[in-house]
Design a protein that fits this description.
Blueprint: E1 2-8, H1 9-25, H2 29-33, E2 42-46, H3 50-58, E3 68-70, H4 79-84, H5 89-92, H6 94-108, E4 112-120, H7 124-140, E5 145-152, H8 162-176, E6 179-184, H9 185-193, H10 199-204, H11 209-224, H12 241-249, E7 257-266, H13 270-279, E8 293-301, H14 308-322, E9 333-338, E10 348-357, H15 359-376, H16 381-385, H17 391-412
Parallel strand pairs: 1-2, 1-4, 2-3, 4-5, 5-6, 6-7, 8-9
Antiparallel strand pairs: 7-10, 8-10
């Protein structure tokens, strides 16, 4: 089964750049991520050429030139401008060009299963054009999966429009994606530095954007690279990992938002690795209420000696306790095992945990409240109305996001 990766905007292409760097280091890269002519199954989109030039330069031999789609005008950090396009006929054709590139890539697949999209939910291109493409891909390939890997902005603020942009993006993803892998800049900083998430710590932390993108890439590789648990006896990987993950952690359409954590160590026991992973996990919201996980998947890599099955009960206990798994799920944690680690270094092992957790409520409630306050004050509405986003779009998005919040609260109550 084949998967096509679609990378949108600066954030999406930088995520993809680091992800495919991990993939190209893997021994199993050919069967899953490359076509027979050794080209990546990927489409790269941005409304400006700067970032795309860097991506193409790094993977010049692996990326098809016809799969690089760029515009000549940015989207001004405006979701409406990204979704509907600027008032320019030539730029408005960008989504059609993307669909044509995607169609050709799908036709190269032996058995097309779905699309993995990478983008942000705060900017104009990633949020707006990303939302448009999710909708168009769903219409064009209604039976295929769509998995979105997205990055949420800093809560301390990147743009005065980020709350509107996030509101629209989250609502579109809930409607059209089968699952959403949610990465938060604040949470990644917390895991990498151990610091609390505020602007002052951001400035003093010795963590770069490249470090954060590398962490996202390792987390994605942790769940998408082949595992022994899903490889048939023939030994040929069928590349079904992203979609089996969806079946495991997104069993119901009301709950689509998944958080991923990744930890890699050398020369440690599985119990110690699990303890290290859960140590930096945020377990409570700002009011002291515990988060709960509806369904959880743990992917362990580097079990070359086959010792993990003897530790599975103790590791499961640590994960179940740390993620506060709901009582009504009889199988709260699913395990996948791989004999090889992501980086293939001898002696290293890793654990990647995907949790469909109620922690998404804290972020979505924050976006909902801030966007609603701005909407009621009629702040910046003219910027969206200028590009065809009317009051109905706002109200429908508020309704969709409020539905997500209520569904998660009910599931863990």
């Amino acid at each position: 089964m084949s998967t096509v990766f679609v990378q949108v905007g600066q954030c999406g292409n930088q995520m993809g750049q680091h992800f495919f760097h991990q993939v190209c280091r893997s021994d199993e890269k050919r069967s899953t991520f490359l076509t027979p002519d050794k080209k990546l199954r990927s489409v790269h989109i941005d409304t400006e050429k700067k970032v795309l030039k860097k991506v193409v330069k790094q993977h010049k031999k692996s990326i098809r030139e016809c799969n690089v789609v760029s515009g000549k005008q940015g989207r001004g950090c405006n979701w409406a401008m990204g979704y509907n396009g600027p008032n320019n006929l030539a730029q408005a054709k960008l989504p059609d060009q993307v669909l044509e590139s995607l169609r050709k890539e799908v036709e190269r697949c032996d058995c097309y299963s779905g699309t993995v999209m990478m983008h942000s939910i705060a900017g104009g291109t990633g949020a707006g054009l990303g939302s448009r493409l999710v909708e168009l891909i769903r219409d064009e390939y209604p039976l295929a999966y769509i998995l979105s890997a997205v990055v949420a902005p800093w809560t301390s603020g990147e743009s005065p429009l980020q709350h509107y942009n996030s509101l629209f993006s989250l609502s579109w993803l809930q409607r059209y994606s089968d699952g959403v892998l949610m990465f938060s800049n604040d949470e990644i900083l917390h895991r990498l530095s151990g610091l609390n998430v505020n602007k002052r710590d951001r400035e003093t932390a010795n963590v770069t954007i490249d470090d954060m993108n590398k962490y996202i890439a390792e987390s994605l590789a942790g769940v998408m690279l082949p595992v022994n648990s899903l490889t048939p006896k023939s030994g040929v990987c069928i590349g079904n990992e992203p979609w089996e993950m969806l079946r495991s952690v997104c069993p119901m359409p009301a709950y689509k938002f998944v958080q991923i954590g990744h930890t890699s160590k050398s020369d440690v026991t599985w119990e110690a690795l699990a303890s290290t992973h859960t140590h930096k996990l945020r377990r409570y919201d700002t009011d002291g209420n515990p988060f709960s996980s509806i369904s959880t998947l743990a992917v362990v890599r580097g079990d070359s000696s086959g010792t993990f099955p003897r530790s599975i009960k103790s590791v499961e206990s640590k994960i179940t306790s740390a993620y506060n798994c709901v009582k009504w799920n009889p199988f709260p944690v699913d395990f996948w095992i791989s004999s090889r680690n992501i980086n293939s270094h001898p002696g290293t092992s890793s654990i990647t945990v995907c949790a469909n957790s109620s922690s998404i409520v804290e972020y979505t409630e924050s976006v909902f409240k801030r966007a609603q306050d701005m909407f009621q004050a009629k702040a910046y509405l003219h910027w969206y109305q200028r590009y065809g986003c009317d009051e109905t779009t706002f109200l429908e998005s508020f309704e969709t996001l409020n539905g997500v919040i209520n569904e998660y609260k009910e599931a863990v109550s």
